[in-house]
Prior knowledge:
The chain is an alpha/beta fold and 335 residues long. The protein is 48% helix and 12% strand. An eight-stranded parallel sheet has the order 1-2-3-4-7-8-9-10. InterPro entries: ACMSD, Amidohydro-rel, Metal_Hydrolase.
Amino acid sequence: MPVVDVHAHLLLPALHAEVERRAPEEVAAAADLERRRNGVESLQASGAMVGARIPKLTDVHARLAAMDEQGVDRQWVSVSPNHFYPWANEGLSGWIAGEINRLIAEHVAHAPDRLVGLGVVPLQHPSHLVEYLDDAVLGRGLAGVEISSFAGDVELSDERLEPFWARAAELGCVIFLHPFGCSLDERLDRFYLSNTVGQPTENAVALSHLIFAGVLDRHPGLKIVVAHGGGYLPFAIGRSDRAWRVRPEARRCAHEPSSYLKKLWFDTVVHDPIAVRHLVEVAGGSRVVLGSDFPFDMGLDDPVAFVRSAGLPVEITDRILAGNADGLLRTKVSA
């Protein structure tokens, strides 16, 4: 079976330039927030890192050549999360979502046998989520959409998201949960803590909102793939179970939180073979999928070898490398 990487990114410089032209003050404010959250040292290092990877982030031929080197047959391509623009107003965010869905579709159309696209929705404007989910999946033929861990005042437990979850389950499409930025802000502004601590924290918070709010009870057909192995939550899920048992305000879901890990999918961007084995233990061998975070420096340089280094049974390794991801796409509704 073809090796599938579900976590790979596309950068859209021209789109960002147009967003900046349309909303220069908001873009400047967002850049200031990033400086406060990351610190100048990390931003400078990240700028150099991204600059060196522009061909892989933008050019389909460079992408395919890198995939060949990694032994990856197929990639799911989603935009770099800096393109979420969670501050954008209703009109601008709709234009952004439509453009990203169009550009993702155009990029993967250059190699449809090797690339699968994921679009976006304007998470900060819940009343428009179904519209742009349909645009991505039915209008553009994408496999689903990428969302952040929160946007403005919208958490994933927000009741206003119920139509979105229902429509995603109805379409059988993928929801790829990938945070951008951490609300701990300046506490993480050195040592690259904004990424090493911030991203797994945001994953854990977002998943906890989903689980404790009963979203997975009401919409059992959801296909949610979580970046970075789900962050801290799968590795500290016992504390959530304890809260569910002893705290009345934590009993909004029908079952112990740990049971819901088997209803999600987790990628392998965890940087530790022991962590891969733990994900298999708590979620199941059918719920772990190969991810690389291509082509960023915090990703996996050799994602296939990394999965094999976990020492799992051959059958489970093969499912992680290929079968589990392909299975997620088999029941998606087509236009």
